[in-house]
Amino acid sequence: MGSLHEGHFSIVKRALSENEQVIISIYVNPTQFNNKNDLNKYPRNVEADVDKLRHYNNLFIYAPSDKDLYNEVISKKYDLDDLDKVLEGKFRPGHFSGVATIVHKLFDIFKPVNAYFGEKDFQQLCVIKTMVKKLDINVNIISCKTIRESDGLAMSSRNNLMDEEERISAGEINKFMIKAKKLYKDNKIDKIQSSIIDELNKLKNFKLEYFEIDNLSKYSSELKDEGDRIFIACWIGKTRIIDNIPLK
Known about the structure:
By secondary structure, the protein is of the alpha/beta class. It is built from ten helices and seven strands. Strand 6 and strand 7 (239-246) form a beta hairpin. It starts with 5 loop residues before the first helix and ends with a strand.
């Protein structure tokens, strides 16, 4: 959705290394926002993004307007099993219908052989895999590892919205996920979640939405075993952060 950073570039580089031609879409999709304020303040700078991509060869940039993609800015309804009812789906009703709608539109327009998505939005990745299977779309969905800042915070366009104190608190999130991963071998999941949540709530400017250990495969018959992962969503000041790590 633009405001490109090294996390995005890692996906572009991988796609270019595995394909003769690559299309990158830059578009802040309104149908996946259930909060208009979040949509309005989402960082946008298409000109700067295009400049950052100029030195890549065999790259086509698609930066549409709403009118290019929507007659009416509304989502379609998709059968996503129960994937859209948990975690992000629970806190952001309608979000994944918007995600599925725009990805389906892009697949229809370009008919890619391979499509690359970051694991930072792991539930979104699973939603897209499920949609592709349900609709029998002929495309390979390829997942790319999360790229992190030096303190472990997952790279995100939203990170620049935080002030210095908030950014310090945000940098602690990954440390607690790693701690939970170490506890995972010898402790019950409920005990781990309770202990980590207590510690997270001591962070400054922090408000938790969820901290859960789960396997998204159980919510969709179209997914292979994705394995247990830690999922977190929280607010640092006025900035919403999501992240996850695998427990394998």
